[in-house]
Amino acid sequence: MLDKNQHEASTRNRNMESKDDSEVRLLDRFTWANFTCTQSTGGVAILLSETHHQFRGLQTAGVVVFILNLVLFVLFTTAMICRFVQRPSSFRKSITKPPEAYFTGSLWLSMATIIICMQRFGVPHTGPWIIVTIRVLFWTYAAITLTYNIFIFVVMFALSPLKPGTMSPPMFLMIYNAMLTGTVASAIAAGQPLSQRMAIIVAGVGFQGLGWILCLLFLPLFVGNMLINGLGPANQRPGLFISVGSSGYTIVALIGCARAIPDGYGYFAKHPTASETLNVVALWIGIFLWLFAFWLFAIALVAHLPILISKYCNNNKNNMSQQQMNFTLPWWAIIFPNVGFTIGTIYIGEELDSNAIAWVGTVMTVLVFAAWLMDLFLHLKSIFQRRIM
Q: Which portions of the sequence form the region Disordered (predicted)?
């Protein structure tokens, strides 16, 4: 009888240990790449507030998506903290070893969308304190992203130098957090006091320049990688959309900062024509970049046609195609870069007073929102089916 009780106790202990090990292994598979979900969800909330053709309830929908994003961000951050507490050595590996290290930028991009959403949805319903809070968060975010961009590139140069033909689309995430500093500036500057606005605009344009120039260095590597290695595995191919954000968010930042210029204050009091000149320059630079963004978007879109044709027209290869197109976290690249492209299109339409372009932006908004719902469903389905984590 005693032996039987001891055996049962030993079995329970082994089961508990096995369960604990399973939980640890589960957290080990929870990586920075999950924040591509929150950066995209926050981007969709911003897009709903920016789309030209508004209707009753759309802003409320944006608030709901924003709150969902906050909940997801807290859950993901808690999961990452638990992972690093249980396995401290995994923290160093996660920020120094590709490809996970590339996705560390998604954490800061998620924070950028939260700051913009605070401006869009929080300021109209709260007191002056939130304006000060947003300003403090902006400068903190700018300092962190500049430090991060210095650190992450030194790490990549020293520990993981890039070989010819090995450019990975998630590498753009290391740059976009600095670029989004310019986008955040364009979103919040108009709501700040005149004494603070100029500094935010100047910083935003400067950070946007840093992000755009780094993207210019990466884009030839990105295209060269496709020339050498092709379009990549089918289930990773949605990651090709990530390059679209380089031009899209530059358009948003330049036009947004130009709109926020304070007339008759400081520099613009001494140069009264500078405000109108910069608005014109920002618009036409945006138009100059828009077709390039569309070209990158079209390449990523057309790259999926052979897969779709193989899936729906070739019965003999149907099962294989289905397996190749299983959801992976890079599928969130369908959303976030195209949010910038869509908002940039909306801004150009508004500046040109073009109803046709405004409707194009509205259609793009609907498509991005539909893609977001698809990714959200597939992400949850993949978790329940244990195909990720």
A: 1-20
At residue 321, does pLDDT exceed 50? no
Query: Degrees (nearest 5) of the Cα angle 388, 114, 89?
Result: 45
CB contact at 8 A, 138 and 94:
no
Q: Which domains does the chain have, with CATH numbers?
A: 24-384 (1.50.10.150)
| CA atoms of 171 and 168, how far apart (whole Å) | 6
Spatial CA neighbour of 336 closest among 290, 368, 366: 368
* Helix pair angle (274-302, 244-259), 10° resolution: 160
| DSSP 3-state of 389 | coil
Q: What is the pLDDT of residue 19?
A: 47
Q: Are 155 and 96 in contact (CB under 8 A)?
A: yes
* H helical segments located in 231-273: 244-259, 267-270
Q: In terms of Cα–Cα distance, which of 169, 178, 146 is closest to 98?
A: 169
> Could you say which DSSP state residue 166 is in?
-
Q: Over 50: is that where the pLDDT of 20 sits?
A: no
The 3-state DSSP class for residue 364 equals helix
97 DSSP assignment: S
CA-CA distance, 115 to 136, in Å (whole number)?
Answer: 10
* 131 pLDDT more than 90: yes
Give the pTM: 0.88
- Spell out a b/e string for 225-239, using b for 16 or more CB atoms within 10 Å of the CB, else e: bbeeeebbebbbbbb
Answer whether 177's CB lies under 8 Å from 109's CB: yes
Question: What are the tokens at 315?
Answer: 């019965």
User: In terms of Cα–Cα distance, which of 91, 99, 113 is closest to 33?
Assistant: 99
d(CA 9, CA 365): 58
Give dist(CA 16, CA 203) in Å, integer: 53
DSSP state, 163? P
What single DSSP character describes residue 335? T
CA distances (Å), 299 to each of 45, 124, 274, 302, in order?
26, 40, 38, 5
Q: Would you tell me how many other CB atoms lie within 10 Å of the CB of residue 261?
A: 20
In contact, 193 and 133? CB cutoff 8 Å: no
Distance CA(185)–CA(194), nearest Å, equals 14
